[in-house]
Amino acid sequence: MYKEYLTVSNIVGPLVIVEKIEDVKYGELVEIESGDGLFRRGSVLDVSTEKAIVQVFEGTFGLDVDKSRVRFLGRSQQLGVSEEIIGRIFDGSGRPKDRGPQIIAKKMLDITGSPINPDARDYPSEFIQTGISTIDGMNPLVRGQKLPLFSGSGLPHARIAAQIARQAAVLGKEEKFAVVFGGMGITFEEANFFIEDFRNTGALERAVLFLNLANEPPIERIATPRLALTCAEYLAFDLDMHVLVILVDMTFYAEALREISAARKEIPGRRGYPGYLYTDLASMYERAGRIKGKKGSITLIPILTMPEDDKTHPIADLTGYITEGQIMLSREIHRKGIYAPIDVLPSLSRLKDKGIGEGKTREDHADVLNQLFACYARGKEARELALILGEAALMDIDKLYLSFAGLFEDEFVRQGEFESRSIINTLDLGWKLLHTIPRKELKRIRPEYLEKYYSEEK
Amino acid sequence: MKQGKIIRVAGPLVVASECLGAKMYDMVKISELGLIGEIIELKEDMAFIQVYEDTTGIGPEEPVFLTGKPLSVELGPGLIGSIYDGIQRPLDVIRSQKGDFVTRGIELPPLDREKKWNFLPLVKQGQEVSPGDFLGEVEETPLVKHRIMVPYGSAGKIVEIKKGKFSIEEIVARIQTENGLKEMKMYQTWSIRKNREVYERLMPEEPLTTGQRVLDTLFPIAKGGTACVPGPFGSGKTVVQHQLAKWSDAQIIVFVACGERGNEVADLLLSFPDLKDPHTGRPLMERTIIIANTSNMPVAAREASIYTGMTLAEYYRDMGYSVALMADSSSRWAEALREISGRMEEMPGEEGYPAYLASRIAEFYERAGKVICLGSDRRMGALSVIGAVSPPGGDLSDPVVQSTLKVVKVFWALDDKLANMRHFPAINWLLSYSLYIENIKGFLKNQVAEDFIAIRQETMQLLEEESELQEIARLVGVESLSERERLILESSRSIREDFLHQNAFHPQDTYTSLRKQYLMLRTIIHFHHQGLRALEEGRSLDEIVNLEVREKISKMKFLPEEDSDMLEIYIEVDNTFKKLLQSKE
Ligand SMILES: Nc1ncnc2c1ncn2[C@@H]1O[C@H](COP(=O)(O)OP(=O)(O)OP(=O)(O)O)[C@@H](O)[C@H]1O
Ligand SMILES: Nc1ncnc2c1ncn2[C@@H]1O[C@H](COP(=O)(O)OP(=O)(O)O)[C@@H](O)[C@H]1O
Ligand SMILES: [Mg+2]
Ligand SMILES: [Mg+2]
C-alpha cells in the first residue's frame, strides 16, 4: 500500500539517505526493512526533490545500502492512547514491555504535540507539599510547574525523585493523579529502582512508564520523552488527572540529539551540541502547565546529570533557561553524609510567589524563606572567611552566622528518605534556626511576623 | 496569485523554485495549508523562505503562493490590550476559535473588523494636511487617545471628514492628493522590517522612572534611551522587565516575550488587568500590548516578533507618546537568526552566529530614540528599548552581549552570586553603568532635589570603597581595618540591604517614587556622615552601629510614600546622634 524504495544511497551514523523519492513530507514517519527482514523506524529530517534524510530511531547497525527497503508512512510518529494505558510499561518507542496486550487506541496522538496558546494558560498556584524542607520551605513546587533536578554522577537524584513522587500532595485535597515516567539511557538498575518504588507504594497502578535503557538504541531517546509527554497530556487534559512527569536523564537525550546533528554535519554550537538544542528542549518542557477551564495539570520534573557538576554545561544551562527554576544537588553536602543533598542557594523556584502565603501555606512563608536564604548565604560567606583566617578572626556576628550555616545543613537540609515534613513543621523549624540570630538582623521579615513568631525567650 | 514550487523542506526553512519576480522579504503562503513565510534569500529562480509555522507534513512539489507584499502589521485602534503572536495574529481570538493549542494555517486579522470606534475629527474640510497630521482621534482605552494619522506618503487637502461611530474598514476622510483622491480608513499597514519615519532625532534628557531604586538612582535610563539586562538564568532579567512594564512612567508599553516561558506570559495576562498604574490609577492592561512567541512556538516567528513589537511601538511614538518596549529575550531572537542561517548553510561567524548579527542588533536598538514626530504640530515622542540578553553560562563574552553593549547606553549587569544570596534586583553595582547621567542631571536636580546627584555620587563611592575594603578584610581580617573603615563597611551594607535590595513581590516595596528614593538614600548617607563625626568625637563604632534608629532605617522601604515618615526618621538620626555625643563616654 505504501510505495517502497530500494534507493538508499548513503548511511552515516544514525542517518539514511534515500534518493529518487516522490511525495515525501518533512517529519514523515518512515519504516525501513533491512535485508535480514528486521523492521526499523525513523523520521524525515530534510527532504528535497532528489533525496530525503531519514533519522533511524533504532540506529543503523546492520543496515545495508542495496537491500534496505524504505517506506514512507504518510504521517508523523503517533501514540495510541486510552484509559488502558495507565499502569503499563512501554519501551522507548511506545511498544509494550510488560508482556501485556497492545493498547486498543481510542485516540491517535502526534507525539510532537502542539504549543499551548499562552492565552489559554492558567498560572500555576497550587502548592504541592513534597515533605522535603529544602523544596517546600525554600523552593516550593506548584502544580503545573516544570522544575528540574540538576544532579551529578553518583548523587542520589533517583532517591529524591522517588521521594517526591511518593510524598507529593496538595494540602487538603484528594484528586485523581498519575505518574508518567520517561527513562532515557538509564541503567536497568535505575529503572528497576523506580519500578520497585512505585510498586511498593502502590503508585505503579497509576503510573505509565516509557523506558529506553542504556543498551537500547540512542536515537530512540529522541522519541521517549515525547511519548511520555503525549501520554501525560492525554491523562491531564482529556482525563482530568493531575500528572507528575519524571524524565531521566535529559543528558542522554541531548547526547542523542548531538549525534544526529554531527551526522548531518551541522555547525555545532557550544560543546558540539546543535544550536537548536534550546528550542528542542523547550518544545518538550513547555508542555507542562495548566490550562484555563481544565481540571488536570502536568507537573514536570526532568532530571539531568551535569558533566563534571558544571551548571554552565549547555544541557543544564539551556534547561535552566527554560524551566521554572531548578533544584541543585550538591556533592559537598552529599560528602558530609547529609540526605537530601540539596544546595538551596543556587536552587530556585520561579513560581513560588503565587503558591505560598496565607491560605496556601502560612502568612510568614515568603519572609521566612527570604530570611533563611539571606542568613545561610551570609553563614557560608563567614565559613569561607574562617577557612582563610581562622574562626577566631571573625566578628561576633559572623560567628553566629557561621554556626547558623552548620545548623541549617544539619537540621533543615538533613532529613530522612521516608520522612515527610509538613509545611508547618518546616516553617517552625526555620523559625527555630532563626532564633539563633539577633532579632534586629532579621531585616527580611515584616515586623508583625517577628512579633508573632520570634519570641525573645527561645 | 503567482505560484512557485517547493523543492526542499528542512525544518523552518523551505526552498521553492519558479519564484522569479518575488522580492526580498515578501510574504508567501506555503502549500494548501497556507502557512505563512517570508523570503530571506533569492538565488536565480529560487526563493529561500523562513516559515513562521511548523512545517511537518509539507514536502516537495507543493505550491508556494507569492503575495508580492512584504510581511506587515496592521496599525489602528484595537492594538492596546491585545496579545499577538510573532506575526501579529491575535492569540486570544485564536484561542476562542481554535481551542487551547495553537494549530497551523490560521489566518485572522489582527484588528477587530466589527468593533465601532467613536471617531472625533481633528481637521476641517479644506485644510491642508501632510503625513503624520492627526485626522482625528478615538478613545482606544480610558488611558489612550488613539490618533488617526495621515499615512506616510499622503498629503493634500481634506475634501471630506466624518464624525461618529465607525469600524476600521469604513472611510473616515478623503484627501485630494497630487495623485488623486485618497480614502482614509482608521488603520494603515507597515512593513515590520522598515523603521517608521520621523522628522528629527533629539537627545534624551528626561529619565524613564521605573520605581526600582537601583535603576532610577544609580543606573537610570532616559526616555528614548536604550538599555540591556544580561544575566544567567534565574538572575532576574524577566522580573526586571516585568517591573519596568508595570511601574515605569511610559504611556504605552509593548512587551515582547520572545522565545521564553509560556507561564511568564500568563503571569502578565492575568496580573495586568488587576494592577493599577501608579501614575494614573488605571489598570495596566489599558496601556499595554503583548507580543508572545514563547519558546515552544515556531522558531522563525520568534525572529519576526521583535520587529513586530518595534513597529507597533514606533506607531504609538508617532502619535506623540512616550513608549517603552521590552524584549525578553533578544538572545532567543539571535538564536532564531542563527538557526535559519545555519540551515541556509551561510558562513558562520562567532559561536555559529551569522556575520551580520552585530549589524542587525545595532539596527534594532537604533530604532529607539527621542524624536520630533512627523506632522505639522512638531510634537515629540519617545521610544525607549530595554532588551534582556541570555548568554550561555552567563558568560558576558557571548557575541550577542558584546554586540548589544556596543550600541546600548545602559548596562544592568545581573550577577549570579547576588541572585543566589537572594539580593534582588541582582544588579551588580560595580559593573553596571548608565551613560545618561549627564543628559538627565538637570532634570533630576530640578524635579527631585538639588543634591540628588551628589548623594548618588557619594553612594557609588561608598560601594566602590566597600569592595576594596572587603578585599583587604578577606586577606588580613576585619580587625586590621580602622573604625572609620569599618563604618564604611556598615554604611555600605545599609545601602545594599536597606536601599538597593528591593523585593518585587512585596506590595509596598515593589515601587518607590523618585522622591522617596531620594529621601531614603539621604537618610542613610546622613547617618553615615553623623557616624563619621561621632567617631571623630571619640565614640566607638559599636555604639554607632547599635543605635536603635538603624532598625527604622532598614524598614523605610516598607513605609508608605508619605514624605513625613521619611523626614521623621531623618530627624531621629539627628537627635540620636546629638544624644550620643552629649552622653558621657
Ligand atoms: N565538536 C565541535 N566541532 C566543531 N567546533 C566546535 C566543537 N565543539 C566546540 N566547537 C567550537 O569551539 C567553540 C568553543 O567551544 P566550547 O564553548 O565548548 O569550549 P569551552 O571549553 O567551553 O571554552 P570556554 O570555556 O573558553 O568558553 C564553540 O563555540 C564552537 O564554535
Ligand atoms: N526584584 C526581585 N524581587 C524578588 N525576587 C526576585 C526579584 N528579581 C528576581 N527575583 C527572583 O528570581 C527569580 C528569577 O528571576 P527571572 O527574572 O525569572 O530570571 P531570568 O529571567 O534572568 O531567568 C524570580 O522567579 C524571583 O523569584
Ligand atoms: Mg565556551
Ligand atoms: Mg527570564
Give your account of this protein's structure.
The complex is a heterodimer of chains A (458) and B (585). Chain A is α/β, with parallel strands linked by helices and 458 residues long. Chain A is 32% helix and 24% strand. In chain A, the strands form 5 sheets. Chain A has an 8-stranded mixed sheet, with helices on both faces. In chain A, strand 5 and strand 6 (51-56) form a beta hairpin. Chain A is elongated, with a radius of gyration of 25 Å. With 585 residues, chain B is α+β, with helices and mostly antiparallel strands. Chain B folds into 4 domains: 2-70, Beta Barrel (Elongation Factor Tu (Ef-tu), domain 3); 114-186, OB fold (Dihydrolipoamide Acetyltransferase, E2P), CATH 2.40.50; 200-434, P-loop containing nucleotide triphosphate hydrolases (Rossmann fold); 452-582, Bovine Mitochondrial F1-atpase, Atp Synthase Beta Chain, Chain D, domain 3 (Bovine Mitochondrial F1-ATPase, ATP Synthase Beta Chain, Chain D, domain3, Orthogonal Bundle). Chain B contains 16 helices and 26 strands. In chain B, strands 8, 18, 19, 20, 21, 22, 23, 24, 25 and 26 form a 10-stranded mixed sheet that branches. In chain B, helix 12 (483-500) packs antiparallel against helix 13 (514-536) and helix 13 (514-536) packs parallel to helix 16. Chain B is globular. The termini of chain B are far apart. The mean pLDDT of chain B is 94. The chains are: A alpha/beta (458), B alpha+beta (585). At the A-B interface, strand 5, strand 11, helix 6, helix 7 and strand 22 of A face strand 1, helix 1, helix 4, helix 6 and helix 11 of B. Strand 5 of chain A pairs antiparallel with strand 1 (2-10) of chain B, so a sheet runs across the interface. The complex binds adenosine-5'-triphosphate, adenosine-5'-diphosphate and magnesium ion (MG) (2 copies). The site of one magnesium ion (MG) has 4 residues of chain B, from helix 3.
